[in-house]
Write a structure and sequence with these properties.
alpha+beta; OB fold (Dihydrolipoamide Acetyltransferase, E2P); about 180 residues; two-stranded antiparallel ribbon; 2 domains
Length: about 180
């Protein structure tokens, strides 16, 4: 058994993922105060009876001590939740923002779609797009060199390779390059 301290980043989101089932799930978005990293914990009411009721009404900024234990599959299960009297001074969030859009849903007191803040160090859509351009350019240069080898021109200059690579690149990105004449009949 181990104990961690967490700071609640937003109220718990309770949903019923499958309307044909009777169980509900809760997502607790929190900051792990031992390492300063934001995290989320998904709990199912029928498996988390010991902590479910304590977590239903958590408020943003509250600090909790969580007693947890690894189950047979190696996952941490929260066994006991206690509201801490101490302030959250161990660490501070580095990438999390608790600003989210929330809307109430129905008479069950649960919350509907919550758009979580971007948490993580993976690439942004802009970075991914730029990376894709680099990949296509690299592939285009490789294919331009292979194309010129097929043509049999050993004295090809870099300018010619780049010009052909740009034609391939334009073709991949939907440009106006017309490579249909280069195809065998």
């Amino acid at each position: 058994m181990s104990t961690i301290r967490i700071k609640i980043l937003q109220p718990a989101l309770v949903t019923q993922p499958d309307p044909s089932k009777t169980y509900k799930q809760m997502i607790v978005t929190h900051l792990d105060l031992s390492n300063g990293k934001p995290d989320g914990k998904k709990l199912i009411d029928i498996y988390s009876k010991g902590v479910w009721s304590e977590l239903l009404n958590v408020k943003e900024g509250e600090v909790y001590e969580i007693e947890r234990e690894k189950n047979a599959k190696g996952y941490w299960e929260w066994k006991k939740v206690t509201l801490s009297k101490a302030e959250a001074t161990d660490a501070s969030p580095t990438t999390a923002s608790s600003a989210t859009s929330r809307s109430s849903a129905g008479a069950t007191g649960s919350r509907a779609d919550v758009t979580p803040a971007r948490v993580g160090s993976w690439e942004t859509p802009e970075e991914r797009s730029a990376k894709q351009v680099y990949i296509v350019r690299q592939s285009s240069i490789t294919n331009a060199i292979a194309f010129l080898k097929i043509e049999g021109d050993a004295g090809t200059e870099v300018k010619e390779v780049i010009a052909i690579a740009k034609e391939f690149e334009n073709y991949v990105f939907g440009g106006v390059a017309d490579l249909t004449n280069d195809q065998p009949e």
